[in-house]
Every structure is written in C-alpha cells, then in structure tokens.
C-alpha cells in the first residue's frame, strides 16, 4: 500500500441498488441446525445462516452492467453471440488463443486431466486443490506438491508463499523423467495455502525450467487478478503496472488455463478451459460436447456467458480489486489485533483461522477445524469451511487419512456482498469463540463418502 493511501479510509467503490434480507435464528435453533447437519457447514440450509463465509465461489454480487448483459442472452444452441464476446474478453485480458466454455472450473479440470494425463504420470503443482487433484488422480496421475516449505507454515510471513520450490520440481523431473510429467499445474492465489500469491519472478523461473524439459504449464487461474494485486503491492518493479497488464503477463508465461469463473470473474456460474495449442484445443472441443454441452456454450446459458465477459473486464479494474482484497485484509487485521491465530500474511479471498493453534487440546483425529467451524456457526450464525484433515481425504493406497500440516477454518469473503459492519460482527464472533476455546470438544466421522468427502460427510461428538 502506498503511504498516502494508508492515511485515509477507503470505501467500497460501488453503492447498493438491491438488497437481500438476512436473518439470524436463535442460538438454540443454530445448535439444532448444526446437529441436523451432522456438524458439517456444507449441510446447513442457507436460510439458517446469518453471514455466509462458506465460499467466495458463485456467491458474489453482479454489477448493474452484468445484469444488463443478462438481458442480451442469445440462447441459440449453436454459435451464440455471447460466446464470441466471452472468447474476445478471454483473448484480450488473458491472452490465451482458444477457449472451451465449461459449466464451472471442475468441468475444465476434467477435460484437461483426461486429455493430458496417462496412467502412472506425475503432476507437480504449487499445493493441491481438492477438485484439481481428484481429476488428476481419476485420470491415472499422482499429484506431487512442489510449493515452497514456507507455504505449510501459517506463521511464516513470506510475501509469495505460492512460489514453486524449483529444486523440488527439478528433482522430480530428473527422478521420474520428463515424459512422465504431462504438465506442471500452477495456481495463482493458492486456495489451500490461504489465498497466497506466486511472484512473477518465480513463475518466470518455472517457465525456464519447464522449457528446458519441454513440459507445458497449465494455470489454475481462478483467482489470477487477486494474485496480480499482491504482485503490484509486493514485487519490486510492478508498483505502477496496471493490474490488467500483470494478469496478462502471468497468463503469457503459461500454456493453458482452467478457470472457475465463479470467483475472480464475478459470476454465479461458469468456467472455461483456455489453450494455446491448436491440436489440444481441437481434442478439448470434441470432449466438451460429451460432458458439458456444445463447444459454444459448454453448459452455460448465453446470458451467463455475457455476464462472464463483462465480469472479466470488471475483475481487473484497480478500484474493484483493491476494495475486494482490502476487505479481506480489514477482517484479517481485526483478528490479528484481537490476538486470534490466523494464516499470515492475510490472504486474498479469505481469512484462514489456525485451528491447530486455537484448539491445541484436540489431536488431528479429533478434527479441530471441523469442530471450530461448527462452534463458530453456533456462536453467531457465521458459516465457514473446514480446510484440514477432512478436506485432505484419504491416501488411495493405504486408506489412511492424509494429515496436512495446515488445519484451518476459512472465512471466505464473497465479492461486493458484505459491508465492513458484517466484518466487524464476524470478528467479534471469532473472538468470542476464541475466548471459550478450552471448552470446545472434538468430533469424529459418522458418515464418509468416497469422493471429496468434506462436502457430504457427517460427524458426531466424540
Ligand atoms: C483454486 C480452485 N481451483 C478449482 C476450483 C474448482 O472450480 P469449481 O468449483 O468452479 O468447479 C476451485 C473451486 O472449486 C478453486 O478454488
Ligand atoms: N472452489 C470453491 C468451492 C469449493 C470448495 C471446497 C472445495 O474443496 C472444492 C470446491 C471454493 O474454494 O470455495
């Protein structure tokens, strides 16, 4: 932040034109609701939630320009005008040549994984993401984490915790052989690390290394503008570069991208796969008709594609991104002032509570983050999400739980939805739970589905 900006308050760069009432049910009702939901915040009904910080995915408020765009939906089965607008926006702002629309991010992950990964391959990446890793595994690959060690330490204040450890990456390539590495998976603003950015300096080195071995880079660009904002703030030489140019430069260092447009790009549904390689693009275009829809809509309505094209433009506006990440920083700083242990530095899309440190009396088998998320809901109706041992799932070979170092509860902020007053209420509730932390007892599994278990598992008190 520049010094003149620090002196003055900032306000959201929009005014509110339409409102959606929220309601808070009583503590007794919340206790009942969480028990009925098997202590899983994903299983709560949204009508029982007061402030919903479960996710920033598809939960943002669209602008009046996006809603106006919705009225221009060309709902033709083939060749919708809105697809061409979307394609143009992706080519202009991200620089990728070819676009395959999908219903959301995991649709794109499915296609790229099936097309590029063979049985026995290894896919290095800067920390796993649940759906991305699962699609890599379902295609026969094994994900290998090559993020820097600092990313696994919530206290470490490295400014670019999503950086790739180049030695880890090169060692893997040497050990397994470049022909068993179909691509390197690089996420911007790494979700599971706490919304942490990768630097352009590091990405350029990853590019050099992968060029040496002729390995492509596939970019999970779900929160690329948020990553660009941190580059502008923290990476020498980028202070005066417009966000849109930083975004473009990031994308130019990669060969293709999967996008969950429900985040950065400010829509409630949508995604795409973007590719530079024409051959691969043709294969992806053929596959999308099997799983998503025709190659000019891929599961989205025409109006959704129009809203997305406009959302991409808005996502790289300086005022927007500064306020978006600024609101997350505001909540994070409040919690730090209150002495609550959170992941540092504060991330781009949410504040991540360090459940391991908040509930040190619970072992990982007592599911501290799941327990903390349930306790927070009971305190105030604030809905958050577990990001720890439950999210990490089981090792496919041994059947044992994966035990990640990070045991976190994510307070994820939807874009343009809540005000600073909501953030104050959230902070006070976290503080209240933190003060009573010693009374909180753990949980155990009651029901566990096979895939992405955190969405649908049920738990009971131990
Ligand atoms: C970093 C990241 N990648 C991929 C995805 C998958 O996207 P979607 O939820 O749109 O399928 C998400 C969210 O789920 C995400 O946060
Ligand atoms: N990508 C969304 C939705 C989601 C949540 C958890 C997941 O593990 C997968 C998907 C998010 O990060 O909030």
Distance between the termini: 46 Å
CATH topology of the largest domain: Aspartate Aminotransferase, domain 2
Low-confidence stretches: none
| Tally of discrete structural domains | 2
Rounded Rg? 21 Å
Helix percent band: 40-55%
So, CATH architecture of the largest domain? 3-Layer(aba) Sandwich
**Average predicted local confidence, pLDDT:** 97
CATH level-4 homologous superfamily of the largest domain: Type I PLP-dependent aspartate aminotransferase-like (Major domain)
Structural class, from secondary structure content?
alpha/beta
Beta fraction of the residues? 5-15%
Strand order of the largest sheet: 2-8-7-6-5
Largest sheet: 5 strands, mixed
* Count of helix runs: 17
Topology:
Layout: H1 3-7, H2 27-36, E1 51-52, H3 64-70, H4 81-93, E2 98-102, H5 105-116, E3 122-125, H6 130-138, E4 142-145, H7 166-176, E5 184-187, H8 200-213, E6 217-220, H9 224-234, H10 243-252, E7 256-260, E8 271-275, H11 278-291, H12 302-315, H13 318-337, E9 350-354, H14 355-358, H15 368-380, E10 382-383, E11 385-387, H16 389-392, E12 408-412, H17 420-435, E13 443-447, E14 458-461
Parallel strand pairs: 1-10, 3-4, 5-6, 6-7
Antiparallel strand pairs: 2-8, 7-8, 9-12, 11-12, 13-14
Helix pairs in contact: 2-15, 3-12, 4-12, 5-6, 5-11, 9-10, 13-17, 15-17
Tyrosine binds at residues 55, 57, 130-131, 191, 260, 391, 412.
Question: What does this molecule look like?
Answer:
This protein has helices at residues 3-7, 27-36, 64-70, 81-93, 105-116, 130-138, 166-176, 200-213, 224-234, 243-252, 278-291, 302-315, 318-337, 355-358, 368-380, 389-392, 420-435; strands spanning 51-52, 98-102, 122-125, 142-145, 184-187, 217-220, 256-260, 271-275, 350-354, 382-383, 385-387, 408-412, 443-447, 458-461. It has 462 residues and is of the alpha/beta class. The protein has two domains: 3-56 and 318-461, Aspartate Aminotransferase, domain 1; 64-315, Aspartate Aminotransferase, domain 2, CATH 3.40.640. The strands form five sheets. A five-stranded mixed β-sheet has the order 2-8-7-6-5, with helices on both faces. It has a three-stranded antiparallel β-sheet with strand order 9-12-11. Helix 8 (200-213) links the parallel strand 5 and strand 6 (217-220). Helix 2 (27-36) runs antiparallel to helix 15, helix 4 packs parallel to helix 12 (302-315) and helix 13 runs parallel beside helix 17 (420-435). The longest helix is centred in the last third of the chain and has 20 residues, at 318-337. It starts with a helix and ends with a strand. 50% of the residues are buried. The model has no long low-confidence stretch (mean pLDDT 97). Bound molecules: pyridoxal-5'-phosphate and tyrosine. Residues 57, 104-106, 129, 131-132, 187, 191, 220, 222, 260, 262, 271 line the site of pyridoxal-5'-phosphate. It is an enzyme of class 4 (lyase). Its EC number is 4.1.99.2.
């Amino acid at each position: 932040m520049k010094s003149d900006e620090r002196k003055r308050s900032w306000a959201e760069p929009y005014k509110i034109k339409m409102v959606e009432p929220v309601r808070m049910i009583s503590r007794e009702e919340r206790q009942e609701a969480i028990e009925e939901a098997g202590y899983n915040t994903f299983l709560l009904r949204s009508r029982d939630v007061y402030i919903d910080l479960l996710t920033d995915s598809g939960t943002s408020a669209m602008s009046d320009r996006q809603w106006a765009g919705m009225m221009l939906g060309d709902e033709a089965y083939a060749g919708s005008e809105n697809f061409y607008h979307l394609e143009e926006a992706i080519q202009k702002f991200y620089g990728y040549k070819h676009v395959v629309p999908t219903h959301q991010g995991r649709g794109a992950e499915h296609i790229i994984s099936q097309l590029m990964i063979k049985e026995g391959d290894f896919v290095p990446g800067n920390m796993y993401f649940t759906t991305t890793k699962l699609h890599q595994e379902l295609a026969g690959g094994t994900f290998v984490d090559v993020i820097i060690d600092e990313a696994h330490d919530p206290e470490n204040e490295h400014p670019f915790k999503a950086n790739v450890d180049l030695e880890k990456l090169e060692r893997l390539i040497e050990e397994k052989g470049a022909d068993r590495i179909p691509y390197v998976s690089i996420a911007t603003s790494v979700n599971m690390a706490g919304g942490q950015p990768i630097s352009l300096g590091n990405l350029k080195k990853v590019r050099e290394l992968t060029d040496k071995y002729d390995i492509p880079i596939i970019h999970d660009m779900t929160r690329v503008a948020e990553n660009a904002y941190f580059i502008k703030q923290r990476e020498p030489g980028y202070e005066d570069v417009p966000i849109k140019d930083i975004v473009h430069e990031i994308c130019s260092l990669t060969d293709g991208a999967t996008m969950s447009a429900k985040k950065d790009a400010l829509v409630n549904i949508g995604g795409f796969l973007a590719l530079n390689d024409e051959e691969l693009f043709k294969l992806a275009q053929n596959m999308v008709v099997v799983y998503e829809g025709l190659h000019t809509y891929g599961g989205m309505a025409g109006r959704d594609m129009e809203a997305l094209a406009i959302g991409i433009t808005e996502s790289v506006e300086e005022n927007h991104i500064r306020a978006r990440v600024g609101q997350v920083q505001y909540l994070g700083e409040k919690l730090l002032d209150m002495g609550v242990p959170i992941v540092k530095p504060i991330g781009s899309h949410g504040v991540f509570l360090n459940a391991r440190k908040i509930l040190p009396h619970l072992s990982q088998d007592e599911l501290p983050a799941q327990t903390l998320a349930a306790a927070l809901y009971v305190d105030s109706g604030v809905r958050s999400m577990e990001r720890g041992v439950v999210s990490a799932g089981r090792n496919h070979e041994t059947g044992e739980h994966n035990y990640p170092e990070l045991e976190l509860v994510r307070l994820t902020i939807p874009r343009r939805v809540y005000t600073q007053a909501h953030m104050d209420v959230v902070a006070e509730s976290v503080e209240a739970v933190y003060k009573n932390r010693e009374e909180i007892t753990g949980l155990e599994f009651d029901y566990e589905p096979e895939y992405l278990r955190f969405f649908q598992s049920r738990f009971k008190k131990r």
